[in-house]
């Protein structure tokens, strides 16, 4: 198979591959066997940097021969902003989902309801009520009104 890219398309491909690499880097880039093929593909794509005149985006490490992305000192590249927005969205979504699931289970337990006895749609609807409530609260106030307690007798910390 042969795919041809313009220089502009190659630059976008470098951004997309860089974004994938940023996700993979979080968990052992190329070191974990399941991620190694992705790292190898990244290297193959980056190896065309000279053909696409992308020496301003990529460089080859002298010490190990690997191709790496060049970054500005202030990390102002669009791909960094996209990655940061993604991480931020993941954080808030995961926080909402986990708190909603925890509190739904706690409410059912307090009412003496076995969640396995509920219809899956009922369970999803109940969890969704908590998700909507937490989504509204966190969008309005962020973490400012969130209180964690280490122990019931301790009070707010």
Number of domains: 2
Report mean pLDDT, rounded to a whole number: 88
The helix count comes to: 4
Uncertain ranges? none
Helical/strand content category: mainly alpha
Taken in chain order, the helices and strands follow as HHEEHH
Radius of gyration: 23 Å
Question: What is the total tally of β strands?
Answer: 2
Report the sheet with the most strands, covering strand number, pairing sense and barrel closure. 2 strands, antiparallel
Distance between the termini: 60 Å
| Coarse morphology | elongated
How much of the residues is beta strand, in percent?
under 5%
As a percent range, the share of helical residues equals 40-55%
**Major beta sheet, strand line-up:** 1-2
Structural description of this entry:
With 157 residues, the protein is mainly α. The protein has 2 domains: 7-69, no CATH class; 78-141, no CATH class. Helix content is 54%, strand content 4%. The chain is built from 4 helices and 2 strands, in the order H-H-E-E-H-H. A two-stranded antiparallel sheet has the order 1-2. Helix 1 packs antiparallel against helix 2 (36-46). The longest helix has 33 residues, at 78-110. The termini are far apart.
Topology overview:
Blueprint lengths: L6 H19 L10 H11 L11 E3 L6 E3 L8 H33 L9 H22 L16
Antiparallel strand pairs: 1-2
Helix pairs in contact: 1-2, 1-3, 3-4
Notable features of this structure?
mainly alpha; 157 residues
Quick synopsis:
The chain is mainly alpha-helical. It has helices at residues 7-25, 36-46, 78-110, 120-141; strands at 58-60, 67-69. A two-stranded antiparallel sheet has the order 1-2.
């Amino acid at each position: 198979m042969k795919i041809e890219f313009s220089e502009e398309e190659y630059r976008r491909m470098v951004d997309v591959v860089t974004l994938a690499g940023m996700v993979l880097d979080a968990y052992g880039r190329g070191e974990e066997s399941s991620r190694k093929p992705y790292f190898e593909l990244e290297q193959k794509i980056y190896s065309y940097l000279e053909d696409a005149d992308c020496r301003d985006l990529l460089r080859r490490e002298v010490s190990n021969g690997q191709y790496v992305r060049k970054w500005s000192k202030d990390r102002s590249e669009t791909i960094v902003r996209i990655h940061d927005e993604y991480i931020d969205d993941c954080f808030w979504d995961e926080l909402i989902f986990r708190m909603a699931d925890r509190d739904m289970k706690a409410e059912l337990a307090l009412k003496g309801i076995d969640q396995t006895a509920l219809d899956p749609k009922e369970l999803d609807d109940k969890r969704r009520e908590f998700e909507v409530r937490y989504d509204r609260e966190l969008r309005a106030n962020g973490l400012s009104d969130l209180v964690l307690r280490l122990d019931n007798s301790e009070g707010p910390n």
